[in-house]
UniProtKB/TrEMBL annotation:
Keyword Cell membrane assigned: no
Keyword ATP-binding: no
One Pfam family this sequence matches: Penicillinase_R
One of the protein's GO biological processes: negative regulation of DNA-templated transcription
Superkingdom in the source lineage: Bacteria
Phylogenetic classification of the source organism: Bacteria, Pseudomonadati, Pseudomonadota, Alphaproteobacteria, Caulobacterales
Family: Belongs to the BlaI transcriptional regulatory family.
Family matches, as Gene3D superfamilies: Winged helix-like DNA-binding domain superfamily/Winged helix DNA-binding domain (1.10.10.10)
Protein name per UniProt: Putative transcriptional regulator
Organism: Brevundimonas variabilis
InterPro entries: BlaI_family (IPR005650), WH-like_DNA-bd_sf (IPR036388), WH_DNA-bd_sf (IPR036390)
GO molecular function: DNA binding
Record key words, sorted: DNA-binding, Transcription, Transcription regulation
Length: 129
């Protein structure tokens, strides 16, 4: 069976996902406070992006005491692995992809890199989502 294809986030959606990966579940206001300014987004833009990401299957939303709170659908290793596989296919790379290249990442710890390496280099029969 081939691996389940994950939705591919855009560059700005990756900025949003990084906020969730660092801080956990967030409201639209919290996302706006963390990254809206640096991206030049209004609160309305932030909410629109979050809803589009929910439609794409990147985020889920639930109500907590009357406030919409968003969370990621896939763990960061799955999303990053999907992006790396896509890049590898685009560059026609045969063989293992080097997850160790991310050892200096502020976003990935040693356990994440090990999990990413395992996901990237799994044989097709092992690579089921």
């Amino acid at each position: 069976m081939s691996p389940t294809l994950l939705p591919s986030p855009s560059e700005s959606e990756l900025d949003v996902l990084k906020a969730f990966w660092r801080d956990g579940d967030l409201s639209a206001r919290e996302v706006q406070d963390r990254i809206g300014g640096e991206l030049g987004w209004t609160g309305s833009t932030t909410r629109t992006v979050l809803e589009r990401m929910r439609t794409k299957g990147l985020l889920t939303r639930r109500d907590v005491h009357g406030m919409a709170v968003y969370s990621t659908v896939q763990p960061k290793v799955a999303v990053i692995g999907g992006l790396m596989r896509r890049l590898g296919a685009m560059l026609e790379i045969d063989g293992a992809l080097p997850a160790a290249a991310f050892s200096g990442s502020q976003l990935l710890d040693a356990d994440d890199i090990a999990a990413l390496d395992a996901a990237l280099n799994a044989t097709p029969s092992e690579d089921e989502a």
